[in-house]
Design a protein that fits this description.
This protein has 231 residues and is mainly alpha-helical. The chain is built from 5 helices and 5 strands. Helices cover 78% and strands 4% of the residues. Helix 2 runs antiparallel to helix 3.
Amino acid sequence: MSRASALLSLQQIDDRIATLIADIASAEAALRGDPELDRLRAAEAAAQEEHRTRGSGAKLAELEAASLQARMRELDRRLYSGTVRNPAELMEMQREVDVLRAKLSTAEDEALELMVQVDGALERLRSASAAVATREAQRNDAMDPLRARLATLTAERDVLDAERDALRAETDPADLSLYARIAAHRRPAVTGLAGDFCAGCHMPVSNEERRAVRTGSGLTQCANCDRILAP
């Protein structure tokens, strides 16, 4: 293998490892969490809070209506029991009954409206909980294949790491230094010929340089882009 071919192989391994690292990070992130599931759980929590709040309001309205009913029953009992004989007191009690009746009507209407709101909140809660359950089931079904994919990616990366280490150990340090310098600014750092042109910058390569590339004698760089030219 020529020196340029060795650097080309190293570049191919480096590129594949970079892809694997990105894929591994993506798989690990998916295993750690699910933004969509987090969103659905937040929606479920909000629905639970809405149902609790509306339920508390409806309960208070029912208690208010019950209290008004109890007071009206007490007044009715006194009005018709014959124990109160003072006309002024009877008139005052009747006025209070009339006021309580109006309040009770308003309270009952409010309680009914709140119960309708509670039913609506319960439906939204059930819908949110169902969405969470569906997403959790989907996520559970995807976990085993995702773990298997992560294991496969990691194993391939480990193999390539070993291949890269072996290849670097066999490569001249000066060649590695040149490759690293060019790769820091240009990708790919090692390219081939496209006819009479550099495949990286598409500028013409001299006859002498093309012969040097094809015979593999030393390292030849493109005079225009500085890339290493491999056969």
